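During the second year of the project, the team shifted from modelling isolated chains to modelling whole assemblies. The rationale, set out in the original proposal, was that interfaces cannot be judged from single-chain predictions alone. As a representative example for this report, we include one of the complexes processed in the last quarter. Its constituent sequences, exactly as entered into the pipeline, are reproduced here:
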Amino acid sequence: MQRKKLVIGLFGFGCVGSGLYKVLGKEAVTGQVATIKKIVAKNPLKKRDIAPHQLSYCKDDILDDDEINVVVELTDDADAAFQIVQAAMQKGKAVVSANKKMVSTYFMELYHLQQEYRVPFLYEAACCASLPLIRNLEEYYDTDTLQSVEGILNGSTNYILTKTFNEKIQFADALKTAQALGYAESDPSLDISGKDAAYKLSILLIHAFGIHVQQEDIFTVGIQQINEVDNAYALARNQKIKLVARAFKQLDGCVRFFVMPAFVQHDHYLYHVDDVFNGVITRTHLADTHFYAGRGAGALPTSSAVLSDIAALGYQYKYEYKKLVSAGPKNISHDCLLQVYVSFPIAKADFVKNYFTEIGEAFSNSEKGYFTGTITLKNLQALQQKDEALSFILMDVCIAEEEQKHEAAWQEEAVLEFE
Amino acid sequence: MQRKKLVIGLFGFGCVGSGLYKVLGKEAVTGQVATIKKIVAKNPLKKRDIAPHQLSYCKDDILDDDEINVVVELTDDADAAFQIVQAAMQKGKAVVSANKKMVSTYFMELYHLQQEYRVPFLYEAACCASLPLIRNLEEYYDTDTLQSVEGILNGSTNYILTKTFNEKIQFADALKTAQALGYAESDPSLDISGKDAAYKLSILLIHAFGIHVQQEDIFTVGIQQINEVDNAYALARNQKIKLVARAFKQLDGCVRFFVMPAFVQHDHYLYHVDDVFNGVITRTHLADTHFYAGRGAGALPTSSAVLSDIAALGYQYKYEYKKLVSAGPKNISHDCLLQVYVSFPIAKADFVKNYFTEIGEAFSNSEKGYFTGTITLKNLQALQQKDEALSFILMDVCIAEEEQKHEAAWQEEAVLEFE
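Output from the structure prediction step:
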């Protein structure tokens, strides 16, 4: 197949943008398939190492240039980014973006723009930086019965959890280092509140299950409320606490999803995913689990995914959204039974207890306490709305007995088939 | 994109073939994109649960049927398989295969057949069962500076190493269980000698670096000579012994490759890849490492990859062999300096010593001994040819000082760029 010559207009000259500019100058990396013609930056007062004829502060210098056939969007304002991307697609330009908030929030508009103007729009870098998740979910897990996708999707919070848990560094200091290393979003509360992971999960849901929901519709618990009682609980059981995003199909055909801290056993794949690394596990009936791990934040890994998308445009690659357009039902549910750990100031014990379906362990000292047990997702959500300072940590998703039987029967049948 | 209707002719009705037949009958799994019209099996005496009009023992019943547009080849004789695949492609049929030996051995012929007859030929299942390695190497690591691919590519030997090392089970018993579980090749010596892993490495080399070499040209050490002295050495250092295939680019631009047992540190990704699982690590300048893990053998995972390939045909997917056809030089080298551990019967100590560039540790008791130190790959090969019973285990690839400096400079420059 003949490679298409790509002429790029780049929006945003921050970490990733400036890196991409340098890297595209290196012959070995790019195979000279793409050149950057124009860069539109935000701040005219900032000194930049770009030839003056390449630099501009007016978006129309890219949008109105017919020679530019690819827009690479690397700004960090989701609304402004969407305006740019929309205009670029309306002018028939292909678009590559790393903006998870924009992709998640404006997904339906972006999907229809792709259909209407028949232009590709790629955004692998929006999810776990360099890990090729979107493409694999889109292309590889097409036929197989995908059961679940779960993982650590946010590098910044994983870095903080690693430092505070493994190395006993203070939360504020760990956050400061994460920011200095360029791991955190420009607004770190997006990371810490779990919202960044929820945006990414919303994107994975599209390509894994053909379902689009807004970030606000994903039950999300961040890491800011995790305290020393929680850490001690994990430590005593040789477990770690990780911020895990999860989407899974149950026997009723419904897909359920949420982002929340989870206790991870020492023999679990995610236990070993530390620092800024991300790790994602897919589960299918036929292949069982697949595990993907790699750096989940940072300018270089993010550039790497942007480059892969640019290269793919050279071969006319585009997402087909196979699962989104397929005829099958895509039911979602916002409720299920979970086994969780909830810790609280001691005065709240009775209040918290009422929300549980069944209490397992109960602990208290003069200041704090925790319960473990089963609780519905809906009750957990209600509890969170009442008191944001409570600490929720997932132990497991409860699997109904009939679901266990169904799964066992599937496996047994499968084994019989192959004997 | 409209899905193409696929009518399949299936060769081979063993583990994977019969599983695929059952799975393609399940609507949920396939989306009804593909139907099996005819199955050609080998042994007419074996009773099979197939409708008589679907079953045949004559290959022309598939090859001469113009309605059949996809041949799925799941037999285990590489030469006979190639004859079938060649004939199918000449008749314009797309082909899916899981036969690593055939793909590796006949690769150049198969490549030219794809060009000449413009038919896709997919073989994801030939490498690490269900893990999507070939497609990711082909599509995703296109632009980036891929530095190395290494991993555990053979599920059967990994199962045996896990059982003998972790659980102290006898080699012969572990092999027997691997065979009973359907993990081993029909001729298990292919697994144990490392040849199966070498076939797979040969396929990865095509898609990772655009290089094709025959299995015979890959220096290969199996697992049969690993003994209790070696295991004790690993155990004392909190390491495991894994059979690792490795291909890597060095500063001179040459790609080097081999398959041999390696000591793996407890904090290394591959340390946790046990039992029948495979694990592969890619390293690129921009993205650093990516780790893929999943079941590396067994009928279900293999079927899963075959199904993904069939689904991809529905969307006109084919390998572009981008790196093979790209203009850049593809130099290979069969020599480099390695840090290895070699164990031997005590009488051979002086003989072995002569091959080393430099000796580090030396150990001996009344029966056995080992050296660690540096040795050239060429000398290791010579030593293996002289005495196949010696045990070689890789400790590390020696990186020249200038190469370390180059790598450090790259990283430093990259970091500076992004500051």
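Chain B touches chain A through 60 residues (CB under 8 Å). The mean pLDDT of chain B is 91.
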